[in-house]
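thought: fold this chain, then report.
action: predict
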Amino acid sequence: RLLFPYIAAISALIAFGLTTLRVPGRMILAVLGVYAYSVPLTLIVPLYDPHEVLDTLPGGSIPFAASWDGQIEVVGHDVLEGTFQQGDLVPVTLYWTPIRTSETDYSLFLHLLTPDATIVGQVDSYPSGGLRRTSLWYAGQVYPDTYQIRITEPLPPGTLLRLEMGWYDARTGE
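observation:
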């Protein structure tokens, strides 16, 4: 998606280079057509492809259960170890299972908290970075969801962080 603004400029440079080589006009159109067709498929589409849906929690993940309003259950997470400081990105992978089908597309919030409940990093997003609507989830499936949460506040060395998560309807704020 970051290349999108440059595609026109790159195409113009390719066309200029091909005309300088005295390539026939139809050949230039063919080259630019192949280029215009292949760039979105090879560079852009993979960036917007959500994780595949799973039948079970993957091995190596830590199972646990917590549900939200009888609709969505978090069934596990990946192991997270290490030390972090201000400016670092903390990788968080959660595994969700809908308890029942929802008509609402819920938004997710993730907060990294210190022991005194100070928020030092947060993410608000639709699942899978906006690529998966909860209204299209099926009960019994496991949906992996990965985020990078930036730590925005200074942390004393050795600070233990906990993750707070929840769901809300972004349209109503509830």
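thought: worth noting. The first helix runs from residue 4 to 20.
final: tokens above.
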